[in-house]
């Protein structure tokens, strides 16, 4: 896992390779309050898929989810090859990604979308509730398109239950960020006059899993989501 911080543009990114070979990147854009997950998933060539498939999930970044970029930039990563254990396991978040984001207009939401999601131009997803928040901040609504829902298409199934590889369905993709600096730790000190003050004295690490559900026009784009 590798961590990078850029306090100038107030963002951080974290990259890891999962057990099944997928490359997962998390980019947190503090300035725009946007979090971008990108997954590069190895394709199944023998089943007609391309070499890899790219997905981007864009959600709102809340305060105190992750340490500030300025603090991250000061972290020294000793032994980057060490497998670290997170101190706190945060609950699994299940997100229904019901809106598509237009890649060519996405830079208005976050300038990082252009670089991070370049391979996933046709597969950038977000949620209606996050869109409402960004619209209130003045983001252009024309970059968002609501995806078909089960209520629009009554026979829309989950991909793992769908027998026909060319039918639309609701795909599910799960990822886990195994270790990331989620909070700053503060210690107290007392000066000669007995006055107590606190100072930053470390970080707390967390692990968090996410499951994203989203519409695909054909099951072929979701072959990992099958009953095994």
UniProtKB/TrEMBL annotation:
<protein>
    <recommendedName>
        <fullName>Out at first protein homolog</fullName>
    </recommendedName>
</protein>
<dbReference type="Pfam" id="PF22873">
    <property type="entry name" value="OAF_C"/>
</dbReference>
<dbReference type="InterPro" id="IPR053897">
    <property type="entry name" value="Oaf_C"/>
</dbReference>
<feature type="domain" description="Out at first C-terminal">
    <location>
        <begin position="158"/>
        <end position="226"/>
    </location>
</feature>
<dbReference type="Pfam" id="PF14941">
    <property type="entry name" value="OAF_N"/>
</dbReference>
<feature type="domain" description="Out at first protein BRICHOS-like">
    <location>
        <begin position="1"/>
        <end position="134"/>
    </location>
</feature>
<dbReference type="InterPro" id="IPR053894">
    <property type="entry name" value="OAF_N"/>
</dbReference>
<comment type="similarity">
    <text>Belongs to the OAF family.</text>
</comment>
<dbReference type="InterPro" id="IPR026315">
    <property type="entry name" value="Oaf"/>
</dbReference>
């Amino acid at each position: 896992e590798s961590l990078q911080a850029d306090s100038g543009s107030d963002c951080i990114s974290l990259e890891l390779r999962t057990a099944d070979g997928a490359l997962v990147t998390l980019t947190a854009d503090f300035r725009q309050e946007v979090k971008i997950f990108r997954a590069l998933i190895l394709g199944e060539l023998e089943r007609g898929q391309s070499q890899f498939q790219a997905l981007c999930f864009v959600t709102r970044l809340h305060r105190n989810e992750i340490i500030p970029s300025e603090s991250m930039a000061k972290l020294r990563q000793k032994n980057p090859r060490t497998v670290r254990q997170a101190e706190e396991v945060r609950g699994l978040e299940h997100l229904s990604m019901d809106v598509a984001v237009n890649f060519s207009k996405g830079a208005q939401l976050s300038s990082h979308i252009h670089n991070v999601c370049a391979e996933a131009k046709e597969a950038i997803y977000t949620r209606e509730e996050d869109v409402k928040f960004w619209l209130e901040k003045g983001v252009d609504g024309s970059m968002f398109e609501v995806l078909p829902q089960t209520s629009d298409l009554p026979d829309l199934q989950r991909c793992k239950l769908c027998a026909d590889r060319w039918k639309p369905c609701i795909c599910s993709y799960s990822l886990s960020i195994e270790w990331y600096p989620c909070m700053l730790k503060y210690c107290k000190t007392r000066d000669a006059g007995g006055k107590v003050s606190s100072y930053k004295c470390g970080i707390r690490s967390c692990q968090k899993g996410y499951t994203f559900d989203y519409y695909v026009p054909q099951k072929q784009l979701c072959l990992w989501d099958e009953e095994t």
